[in-house]
Amino acid sequence: MKFIADAGGVLRGEARVPGDKSLSHRSIMLGAIAQGVTRVSGFLEGEDALATVAAFRAMGVRIEGPEQGRVVVHGVGMHGLQRPAVALDVGNAGTGMRLLAGLLAGQAFDSELTGDVSLCGRPMGRVIDPLTEMGASITAEPGGKPPLRIAGGKPLHGIDYHLPMASAQVKSCVLLAGMYAEGETSVTEPAPTRDHTERMLSGFGYPVQRSANRCTLRGGGTLTACDIDVPADISSAAFLLVGATIAPDSDLLLTHVGINPTRIGVLNILRLMGADITVDNQREVGGEPVADIRVKSAPLNGVEIPLEQVPLAIDEFPVLFIAAACARGTTVLRGAQELRVKESDRIAAMAEGLQTLGIQAQVLDDGIVIEGGEFGGGDIRTFHDHRIAMSFAIAALRAKSAIHILECDHVATSFPGFDVLMNRLGLSITVEQD
Ligand code: S3P
Known about the structure:
Blueprint: E1 2-5, E2 12-15, H1 21-32, E3 37-41, H2 47-58, E4 62-67, E5 70-74, E6 88-89, H3 94-105, E7 111-114, H4 125-133, E8 138-141, E9 145-150, E10 156-157, E11 160-162, H5 168-178, E12 181-182, E13 184-188, H6 196-203, E14 209-211, E15 214-218, E16 227-229, H7 234-246, E17 251-258, H8 265-273, E18 276-285, E19 288-296, H9 317-325, E20 330-333, H10 346-357, E21 361-364, E22 367-371, E23 378-380, H11 386-395, E24 403-405, H12 411-414, H13 418-425, E25 429-432
Parallel strand pairs: 2-17, 3-16, 6-7, 10-12, 11-13, 23-24
Antiparallel strand pairs: 1-24, 1-25, 3-5, 4-5, 7-9, 8-9, 13-15, 14-15, 17-19, 18-19, 20-22, 21-22
Helix pairs in contact: 1-2, 1-6, 3-5, 4-5, 7-9, 7-11, 9-10, 9-11
The chain binds shikimate-3-phosphate.
C-alpha cells in the first residue's frame, strides 16, 4: 500500500486519536492472568494489540471484542493459561514479544513466540539474558533473534537486575517473570522509561515498590480484575502535534491524550523548539494522567535535544525529525542508539527519506544532525515501519510537491484510520495499492 500525500494543507478541528498501544497490550496481558473480569475501553484496535488478543485466546482466555474500543477479558488467574497448540505470532510487536517472553517463562507449559519479518530481525538477547539469569530456558535463532522457544516448568528465582539500556519492554519483561519467581525481583534503569506496567500492576492490586530508578516486586502474588480506560496514544498524537505546528494557520484540539510524565518528551522537545502547545483539563483516569492538548502553528528553531528527554520521546523521533527539517537552524540528537533497533533502523531510514526530499541530514552512530530548510517531494521508502510512513505524510504539509510514501501497510499496527483522519483534518492523503 502506498500513500500519496499532497503538498500543503492546514490542520484544523478536534480529534481523539486511537488508544495507547503500550497500555492496550498490557490491559490484555494483566487482565488475562487476573482473577475476575476486566473491562477495557479505549482499546487500540490496531494490528499489534489485536495480535496480543489472539495470543491469549490461543492460551484459552475468553476475550470479547474489541468492539468500538471495548474489550472484556475473562481472567483465568496466575496459573490458568493453557498451552497454545501453535506458535504465538505477535506480528510486528516488540512489546508483545518481549512482555510475553517474561510471562511465558513462568508458565508450566512450553511455548514458542514468533512475529513478522521486521520483528524476527530484532534483538531478543536483551530479554533472554535476564530471564536465563532467573532460571528460564529459552532458545533463539543466531544473534538472539526470534522465534523464541521457551521451555515450561522451570522454577524461576528473583534477581536484582540493572538494565544495560533504557528499555520499558525489558523492565516489564523482568517484572512479569518476577511475579512467577521465588523471592524478590528488582529492576534498576539507567534513565526513567515508561512506567505503565508498574502503574497497571498496582491498579490490579499487585504490590510494587518504587523509588527513583528502581522497582521491586515479590513473586507469588495475585491480580484482581479491574476496569481500564485506555487514553489516546501520545505517540499517535505526536504526528498531529508536529503537523499542526508546521502547517501555517493550523489549530487542533486533541482530546483525552495520555500525558504520563514518562511519555511527554515530545511535548517538552517541541516546546523547546518554540511550539505553541497548551495542555488543559488535566485529570487522572485509571492511574494514568490524561489531558486535552491544543496546538497551533508556530515557527520552530533547531535545538540540541536534551539527553534526558531521549527515553521520554523514543517513539516520537521520526516525526520530531520532520519538525527539525522545518525549523530554522540545526537540530542535534545524540544518545539515541535505541532508534537503530526499532521496527526499522529509524536513524538510517529517516536520514534517507529526508535526503530524498532535499534536507541535509548527517547520520551519527547514536543520533542525527538535521539542517532545517525548504524541501520538495519524492518517493520515500519506509522499510515497512509505521512511524516512518506517517512522519513523511506529515512532512507533506510543508513540502513543495507531493510525497509518495511506499510500503505503508504497517500504519495499521498503531494508527488504524490514519489516512481517513488526516483527510478530515486537512492533509490530503490518497491510498494506492502498490
Ligand atoms: C514500549 C517500550 C519502548 C517503545 C515501544 C513500546 C512499551 O520500547 O519503543 O514502542 O510498551 O514498553 P523499548 O523498551 O525497546 O525502548
